[in-house]
Amino acid sequence: MRLQNTYKLQKCRGSTVVSSAAPVTAAAGESSPRFSMWSFNLRSDFNAEKDGKDCWAERKEGVAGLLNSYEPDIIATQELIAQQVAYLGDHLPLYEYEGCCRLGSDEDEYCAIFYKKDKFNVVDGDTMWLSETPDEAGSIGWDAMYPRIATWAVLEVKENPGNYVTVISTHFDHQGVEARKNSAKYLKELISDLQKKFPTSPVALAGDFNSIKIENEVYKTLTTGDGALLDAWGASESIEDNGWKRSTMHKFQGVKFDGCMGDGTVELCTVEEEGESSPKASDGMEHIDWILLRNAASGTGSLKAVKSEVFTDTLPSGRYPSDHFPVGTDLMLT
Fold first, then answer.
1. CA dist., res. 97 & res. 113, Å (int)
2. Phi, psi angles (nearest 5°) of residue 277
3. Rounded to whole angstroms, what are the CA distances from 212 to 84, 220, 247, 302?
4. What whole-number distance in Å separates Cα of residue 125 and Cα of residue 97?
5. Cα distance from N-terminal residue to C-terminal residue, the chain
6. With 50 as the cut, is the pLDDT of residue 237 above it?
7. pTM for the structure as a whole
8. Which of 91, 118, 204, 229 could form a disulfide with 64 if both were Cys (CB 3.0 to 4.6 A apart)?
């Protein structure tokens, strides 16, 4: 089910969007399109009283300012609810978005994909549910606590018509261990199906997987075997962690965070000995927010990870924009 790329929250199911605009120019000296992409869990506005000074009302201006400052070309978001999507739609003038509420209405969380409207056309898109009935709005899969979704959009590069990238934003369940495993399997199948329909489009999968990468079946499923995806963090020519080598979830504590458990059953660090957790530098292996890549099924479309970064910025208030750090990757479409 799908929400059209306007700033009005609508029914999810919509017609395919094909826009037209003047092309932008590639960076000087580059023949291949290059763009930046973030994955950013922005913490929903369901817990305003619990979040206190970290509630959305206190963060929203700073979040919009942060995104307008960095201007990533694509922002794969998680957890935003309708009023948050609408606020960012109004305050990110360079962007439009694709997405659908996980209940199939406007009452709950999105995995909205924001994209620069001067750089991309939306060719197609939809939202699928991570469940045994992926077309059923609001369906809950396996042992998950909540409905979980994956929103996808096929974007055409305006500066180079005929060049595409399929972007997927997702958020795995925080409680259901089996749900996370099966969601990974389903997403791999979804990507294969999308590449049959769009064989020349490489894929960038981004999201909060509520799983670290070390000895984790979710990560193993997605990055090994038939149809394996490539971890942009490990494949990047350069990495900037800004001194932070722990989980990308920090519970609004930022660089002072020293915990090993997230919400529900989510582990945030490795365990060296039974009963004793010991956080250690792991070069991105303790991240729960990932960007994964798969080359096009046919033709020459591939995504090259140039640089990946964890952004540890604070807001003007000194607090953090979310309880997760955003992860970004500069990509080259070749």
1. 5
2. -95, 140
3. 27, 11, 8, 26
4. 11
5. 31
6. yes
7. 0.90
8. 91
